[in-house]
Amino acid sequence: MTITSIYEQYQIMPSLQLHMLRVAAVARVIALNTPGLGEVSEITAACLLHDMGNILKFKLDLFPDFLQPQGLEYWEGVKRDFVGKYGTDEHVATHEIARELNQPTRVMDLLSAIGFSKALENAVHSDTAKKICAYSDHRVTPFGVTSLEERMQEGRSRFALNKNTQEDPQKFEQLARGMQRIEQQIFSVCTIKPSDITDQLVNPVVEELREFEMNQKS
């Protein structure tokens, strides 16, 4: 089953599809340029699924451009269906969908490593595949590939604007430093540099990944 058919089956928003494809493309490029790593298929699969439940956290009326061509009413209906089936936690939904797709244990393991909150944990562990999955998600914005520093600065700006946050700003900086350590760790063994990862490099891989065949547990 291709990832495109899976996205269609679960009615994943086109903008969210493109984000996951970009993250997977970044991760795949890094993995293919890391000598002796292996697990390229598992890394790719985890990144292609990592935000499957994210419609649950979207305030849909704030992003009208991302709702086309179906429109707000359609996507609100999809969101209600997700809530009815998976509840309101996007992470729980993502993992439940991966289980429905009968994903191998290693893909589920990598999926669990993705997220800014896991930065310190990933930085101290030796699992390079987990580092790549987590890092790649922080090289992509809704508009394309960016640098880690630009992504962290965008996160700081969003944090400052969120008056309802209960998070400690010092915690954000600790996690940001964790992501920077992960970048250093990855590229100490990778044959390309962080600056080599651009839209121009990644876009052809995105198109190839639209036909990526998702493996299942045997």
What features would you highlight for this structure?
single chain, 218 residues, mainly alpha, Hypothetical protein af1432, two-stranded antiparallel ribbon, 11 helices, 59% helix, globular
List the helices and strands and how they pair.
Blueprint lengths: L2 H7 L4 H19 L7 H10 L22 H15 L3 H11 L4 H7 L7 H6 L3 H10 L2 E2 L2 E2 L2 H14 L7 H19 L11 H11 L9
Antiparallel strand pairs: 1-2
Describe the structure.
The chain has about 220 residues and is an all-alpha fold. The chain has one domain (about 5-210): Orthogonal Bundle (Hypothetical protein af1432), CATH 1.10.3210. The protein is about 60% helix and about 0% strand. It has eleven helices and two strands; from the N terminus they run H-H-H-H-H-H-H-H-E-E-H-H-H. The chain has helices spanning about 5-10, 15-30, 40-50, 70-85, 90-100, 105-110, 120-125, 130-135, 150-160, 170-185, 200-210, and strands spanning about 140, 145. It has a two-stranded antiparallel ribbon with strand order 1-2.
